[in-house]
Every structure is written in C-alpha cells, then in structure tokens.
Amino acid sequence: MTDRIADIHGERTPHPRGTVWPARVDQYLEPGTSAEQVESWVQSACLLCSNGCGVDIAVRDGRMVGVRGRATDVVNHGRLGPKGLYGSTAWASAADRLTRPLVREGGRLVETDWETAMGRVVERSRRLLEDKGPLSHGFYTSGQLFLEEYYALAVIGKAGLGTPHMDGNTRLCTATAAAAFKESFGADGQPGSYTDIEHCDAVFLYGHNMPETQTVLWARILDRTRADDPPKVVCVDPRRTLVALEAERTGGVHLAPRVGTNLALMNGLTRELFVHGWVDEDWVAAHTIGVDDLRSTVEEWTPDKVAEVCGVDADDVRRAARIFGESEHVLSTVLQGFYQSHQATAASVAVHNLHLLRGMIGRPGAGILQMNGQPTAQNNRECGADGDLPGFRNWDNPTHVQQLADAWDVDAMTIPHWAPPTHAMQIFSYAETGSIELLWISATNPAVSMPESARIRRILGGEQCFVVVQDLFLTETAELADVVLPAAGWGEKTGCFTNVNRTVHLSEKAVDPPGEARSDLDILLMYADAMGFATRSGGPLLPWRTPEEVFDAWAAVTAGRPVDYTGLSYAKLRGPTGIPWPVNDAHPDGTDRLYADGVFPTDTDHCETYGHDLATGGTVTETEHRAMDPAGRAFLKGAAYVPPHEEPSEEYPLRYTTGRTVYQFHTRTKTARSRDLDRAAPDAWVEVSAHDAAERGIEEGDWVRVTSPRGMIEVRARVGSVMDGAVFAPFHYGRWEPAGTEHGDAAHRLANELTMTVWDPVSKQPTFKTAACQVTRLRAGDGPAPAPTTAASAPHPDRSAPPSRRARPTEGGAPTTSVVLAETPTYPLDPSGPGREEG
Ligand SMILES: Nc1nc2c(c(=O)[nH]1)N[C@H]1C(S)=C(S)[C@@H](COP(=O)(O)OP(=O)(O)OC[C@H]3O[C@@H](n4cnc5c(=O)[nH]c(N)nc54)[C@H](O)[C@@H]3O)O[C@H]1N2
Ligand SMILES: Nc1nc2c(c(=O)[nH]1)N[C@H]1C(S)=C(S)[C@@H](COP(=O)(O)OP(=O)(O)OC[C@H]3O[C@@H](n4cnc5c(=O)[nH]c(N)nc54)[C@H](O)[C@@H]3O)O[C@H]1N2
Ligand code: SF4
Ligand SMILES: [Mo]
C-alpha cells in the first residue's frame, strides 16, 4: 500500500544497463471499492499527459471507480503516476458535469435540447457562409480529443467549409516540437524511443521538469540512475527541480540559465563540440547539410560569453558539453522551458544539431525526445486539426494537396493551402477584430490557459464573435460562450491516441456519459450532417457513423507518408500493448525508433515543409529547397541569439516564468475534482529565491503582489529554489473550485494575467516563459504557501522559517497498491534490443 501523493514515483526497481525495465503494476480503486467488486476492466491509456501509459479502467455499477497499469504495455510496464492513479476517474461522476446543452438567452446561459442548441450553431454557420464565406469560421481545438475526432474536424474544416482558421491548443503546447522536427528532419515524427533510457550513458533534460510532468518516464530514468551503472543527468532549468538534484547525484551538471537565454546556452554547447573535435565528421558529411554555416553561427559563443549572458558558470558549460561530447549514447528530452520561450524552434533545433554532429540518432540509447505535453497532441498534428494537412503533408506541394482532394472526393481548391494555416494566436486576433464571427472551441479552456487573459476574456465575452464551447464542465471559457455543448469524456467514448514516442493506443468506452452528453465525434458528425457537406459525386463528405470507420479512413489516408498507420486496426490495438507507428507491411509490429538508417524525410517531393529561417521565420521556397538537394540528409540549422521581447527594467526587475506542479493538470477541470490531488496543491503561489525574498522583506507564506506591464496577481510566496532574479508561478489556478471552497476573483491568481501576446517566429508558439515582473510584499500570511514540498516547489532547504511558516510535508493520498512482477512480460518490441528497423 502506497500513498502516491507523498511518494510520487513509487518504489524503485533498479536494473543494469541494457536490461528490460521491470514491470510493476500500480492500482488505485476509489475508497469503498475492493478489487472483487470491480465488474469489468476496460482497456485504455492514461489521458493526463503525453507519456501515454497503458491502463485498464475499473467499472462498477456503471461508474468508473479506478485504474490499474497494464503490465504488458511497452510504455509503462504497469506503472502509473499520481495524476493517472487519483485523477483519471474522479471527475467523471462529479455532480457538476454538463449534462444538457446550454444557449445564451437574455444574457444568461439556459438549458435546452440538442436540436435547439445545434440548430443555433447551424443557422449561424449557414448565414455566415452565405454572407461572408468560410473565413468567417474559426476552430480552436485541443490536445485531448481522440484521433478520430481530430480527423473528422479536419475534414469538416478543410473539405466541408474550406477555412484555414483551425488550430489546437497544441499551438501553446507542442507546436515547437513539430516545427523543430520539420526543420531538421523534413517531417514531424519522434526519432527516439523510451527504450533509449535503458541504453544511454547520459540523459539531458532541456527545460523539462519530467519528475512532475511525466512521472512514469522519470520513474524509468530513476530505475537506471539508482542502479550501479547510472547514466549522468544534465538538467537545463532555472529552478532546482528533482532533475537538478539527480544531476548532482549522478555527477552530471545543473545548468540554470537566466530565463529566456536558452539559445545562447545551446550555441555555447554546440561551439564546444566543434572546438574539441567531438564531431563525427564522416557521418555529418554523409547525412547532413549546413555544418559550415552552423559552425560560424556559434563561433562567438565561448563558455565565458555564455556565462555572462546566461548567468551560469563557464566551467559548467564545459563540463556539460564534455559529457555530451564523450558519451556514445545520449538521450535528450526537450519541453516547455524551451518551447514556450522566444527563439523556441531555434533552441529546440539546436538539440538536434548536437545529436547530428555526433551521429547520435537512430541507435539504441542515442535518442531525441522532443516531448509532447498533452496526451493526444500528436494526433492533432497528424490529423491536421492544428492547421497542418493530414498525414504530414506539405501545403506548398500540389501533389500532396491533390492526394487529399482525391481521398475526400473534393476539388483541391476547396482545401485551404494558398497560405500557411492560421495559428491560434492569430485566430484570436481575428475573433477580436470580428473577421472570425463564429469561433468553435473544443476541449480547451483558453480563458485560463492563453496568455494575457484579460484580453482573452474580452474577446470571448464580446459581441463581435459567436462562441461555441464543447466541454465536460462549465469552465471559465464555457461561461462566456453563446452555445455550450456537453461532451462525453475519456472512458465514455471509444477512440485512439498516440503518445510522445509514436505509440498508438485504443481507449475503449467503459461507461455511458452522463445525461445527454455526447461524444465529440457524434457532435461533429451531427453538425456535418445538418450542414449537408457533400463530396463531388454527391455523397456525404463524412459518411462515418462509428469511431472505427473514421480510424480506417484515417489509416488509408496515411499510406506512403512517414506517419503510416496502414498496418493498424482496432483489432490489432486490442492486443497486449500500444504499437508505435509507422506500422505497415514492412513493419507489421511497429517501429521502435526512426532514422536508424540515417535517411530522413527531407526529399523535396516527400517533406512536410521546405523549411524556414530560424531567426525570422522567413520561408524557404520549393526552388531553393530543390537546389539544396537534401536527398534524405538532415538539416543542421542555427540562429543568432537575441534577448527576449521583454527584459527586466527598473520598474519590473525580475524575470517571470510559469509552469506546472505534479498534482494538478492544466486548468484543473479533472485534477481539482480528485480530493487527493486537490488537497496536495489547493491554491496558487509564486516561487521567489531566498535572496530576492530577503531583499523585499518577504517570508515564506506572505501574500505578495506580482505585477507585469499587463496585469497583476496576488498570491502567497514560496521562498524556494528558483534561481535569483527569476519568479515562477503555476498556471493552473483559474476561477473554478471544488465544492466547499471559494476563492473569489480568478484574475487575482491567474498566472496568465501577466504573460505576453508574443510568439516564436517559426512555430508560432506563444511565450509563457518570459516576461518582466516585480514582486512586492502585501501582508503576512497565516502559514506556509500552499505549494507542494515534494518537488521543485519545495521550500528553500537552507532557510530557517519560523515554525508557523514551515511547510508541512505534502502527503495524505488514499492508499494505492503496487506489485513488482517477478518476471516482466515480453513485448512485441524488445526493449533491450536494437531498433526493429535496423538491418
Ligand atoms: N503534473 C502535470 N503534468 C503535466 C501537465 C500538467 O499540467 N501537470 N501538463 C502536460 C503538458 S500539456 C505539458 S505541455 C507538459 C509540460 O511539462 P514541462 O515542460 O516539464 O513543464 P513546465 O512546468 O511547463 O516547464 C518545465 C520547466 O521549464 C522551466 N523553465 C522556465 N523558464 C525556462 C527557461 O527560460 N529556460 C529553461 N531552460 N527552462 C525554463 C521551469 O522552471 C520548469 O521546471 O506536462 C504534461 N504533464
Ligand atoms: N502561463 C502558462 N500558460 C500555459 C502553459 C504554461 O506553461 N504557462 N502551458 C500551455 C500548455 S502546454 C497547454 S497544453 C495548455 C493547456 O490548457 P487547456 O487546454 O486550456 O487546459 P485543460 O484544463 O486541459 O483544458 C481542457 C478542457 O477540455 C475539457 N475536456 C477534457 N476532455 C474532453 C473531451 O473528451 N471532450 C471535450 N469536449 N472536452 C474535454 C476539460 O474539461 C477542459 O476544460 O495551457 C497552456 N497555457
Ligand atoms: S505519466 Fe502521464 S500518462 Fe502516465 S500515469 Fe502519469 S499522467 Fe498518466
Ligand atoms: Mo501542453
């Protein structure tokens, strides 16, 4: 029995390098339910982060009452983390689920039936199409729907309406991962595999707080770092996270760059590889283009210059580079500390450059994991509900567009491809100015999660745009909508999704949704039917009635593309484990890692994009691309470092950054409805360094006001382990509270009040991780800040707070069970073997 609030990662199962990660089955059943009372276990995968852990859902009396990890799944070998255990099912039977559609009447949202609600949407949509054409419609979707839902939405947008205004919150989340892959390798697609953990000599985590945000993957790393032959850990993060502590333990390095200086650091590390000859010249010559330009781009970035700009120790830069340069097998992971910064794509591509220079790609242990965050972000990118064309097709390539036109039996000119798709930040600007008059938001809560929230509230609440929201709950966003559609959630519908390392899982329906809630697929098909979208030959454009039919249509459309699903079916996915794409005749059991042969999808006729200038976002033309003749070679691309948009000033002397805590997921619609998770991190706080706190007379738990040029929040201070000059705020806390608690005005604790409306020039991902701010003390608190003590938000260790302010250890989760299996079941993909596609 384990309290997985106190013990985030559970019991260690260390094992030697090159051996299979032992299986441990973690299980949680809600209090009052015993294993014997579970009537059925239904196959699924966890939907609370991109790790994609295989789970079975426990069902009793028509309710979801818990989960257990699937021992046979390649992703998690049975393990689950705190969110997966406590947070997967509690929300589903919450009393405040949306059960009926709502429409705005006389300023208020009132309950109605589906016919009325959908009738209003369809009437508005038809009228706008007639009067203003398809560009009056915008769609802002998610990284949390299922593959089948994204594909249906993409077909509606691209072939039914013909609007380029469709994007996902994936723009806030993994747009940079996709952009970085496209720039380096020609197409999206994760090169690495989780099995690289079992083989690596070193693991570099760039702006990635994995112990809190992919807890099971971190448990997998701990089971190597706590063994006798541990890999070295290198942490790049301005906070002293658990990754940083592990870096210290393993003889690695913690590089804490000033917020917003990632690219300067990366240019310095790259330069070290050149200077010390840690470059595999033959491999680089055979498999890449651009090495000379890259060398000159990074030339000025000596360790001393990096130290000056980034505030790190020059010797630490040298040590980290040496670890990279002298290891044979490095695994790199990258996430929001890089993606949500300015120059996001350039910094993330720089990680690829390090691997390419060393020829460290496609081999066991030498992997890149440009992480995703959301569980189904990958599918949004694959299916094109983020604006891309389905199947990683290139909108600048007429042959690719024609392939889709043929598959859908529509005129190629219907499919918007005359310009890049409109990114989310631009969609909101169009909604602000009224050129998008119908904005349909599904499975995302932008009133809390988008930057500069005061502006977002204004846009959603204004008269200039008709807003449709499709959600499980009456969120901060839904409250501002004109029509609210009640959706069925995970476990209440069937569909597939794909995790960070391309592993596809089938998630089966376990229970009925509450009231009149319907699956997102059914809602989209209802709209498509009512609109009468048709093919050229007059048949329905979306002829499907079941998720499986959509899946099969999707699989067919991926034929010949890097993201090849043709060998997958629901039947195959009902087996013991998720399966990583590509799955086709050549790789019937899936593909553990890409690019084992050093051939990349960069050919001009095959690639997903002709690429961009990383500094400006300027596009490379087809002619220029063809002239480079990449022919399967990867691109080495660099960019000069420039400072962030907003630098500290006299008025705002500190650097503001935001992120997550282990116990809450995003805007908390699910995790705050779990008593165990919510109690562990019940309210907002802000982390300041001991030095900055002392300078301002701030003690642990004091109420402080944090201001930026855009707004302010008032929260309690955690005197913590963030680097001097930086301020960290969790972004989870909007208005909504679990029953029995009340927090008043959302704006006063919402981290995004302070963030900026600016984005990376290539990926268009907004910058949540740099702004200038000031922190001032308001008044004494009545105890420690409500921040967890178990991870990066732990109180500063050297500080002797008065007893009344000392943080109590975060603990008290309901008991879970955890059983280490004597023998680990075998998998179709041998985790200790080389990549399947080798040889
Ligand atoms: N518990 C939990 N897990 C989650 C989620 C969640 O909400 N809660 N969400 C999921 C999703 S969608 C995502 S996208 C992932 C995100 O997962 P992560 O990217 O790991 O999480 P963040 O906390 O956003 O940011 C990571 C780290 O970036 C650091 N950072 C801030 N500014 C900078 C900088 O300028 N440079 C560098 N190098 N680092 C910086 C922060 O200190 C932080 O520790 O997590 C997924 N998993
Ligand atoms: N300051 C700051 N802001 C950030 C970030 C940051 O690090 N700092 N991170 C950004 C990132 S990476 C992300 S991913 C976003 C996340 O931001 P959001 O996407 O806004 O966060 P969620 O709370 O996950 O919102 C998902 C919504 O979908 C609903 N939902 C869940 N399942 C279903 C379903 O099956 N159907 C339907 N229709 N609805 C469903 C949930 O109830 C919830 O309201 O936040 C971004 N915002
Ligand atoms: S690591 Fe992610 S996918 Fe796995 S159990 Fe935790 S939240 Fe779920
Ligand atoms: Mo995300």
TrEMBL record:
Family annotation (InterPro entries): Asp_de-COase-like_dom_sf, CT_Nitrate-R-NapA-like, MoPterin_dinucl-bd_dom, Mopterin_OxRdtase, Mopterin_OxRdtase_4Fe-4S_dom, Prok_molybdopt-oxidoreductase
Pfam families in the cross-refs: Molybdop_Fe4S4, Molybdopterin, Molydop_binding
Cofactor(s) listed: [4Fe-4S] cluster; Mo-bis(molybdopterin guanine dinucleotide)
Matches recorded under PROSITE patterns: 4FE4S_MOW_BIS_MGD
Residue span of region Disordered: 779-839
Keyword Metal-binding: yes
CDD domains: MopB_CT_Nitrate-R-NapA-like (cd02791), MopB_Nitrate-R-NapA-like (cd02754)
Residue intervals of the 4Fe-4S Mo/W bis-MGD-type domain: 39-95
Keywords, sorted A to Z: 4Fe-4S, Iron, Iron-sulfur, Metal-binding, Molybdenum, Nitrate assimilation, Oxidoreductase
Keyword Lipid metabolism: no
SUPFAM superfamilies noted in UniProt: ADC-like (SSF50692), Formate dehydrogenase/DMSO reductase, domains 1-3 (SSF53706)
Similarity section: Belongs to the prokaryotic molybdopterin-containing oxidoreductase family. NasA/NapA/NarB subfamily.
PANTHER family tied to this protein: NADH-QUINONE OXIDOREDUCTASE SUBUNIT G (PTHR43105:SF10), RESPIRATORY NITRATE REDUCTASE (PTHR43105)
Stated name of the protein: Molybdopterin oxidoreductase family protein
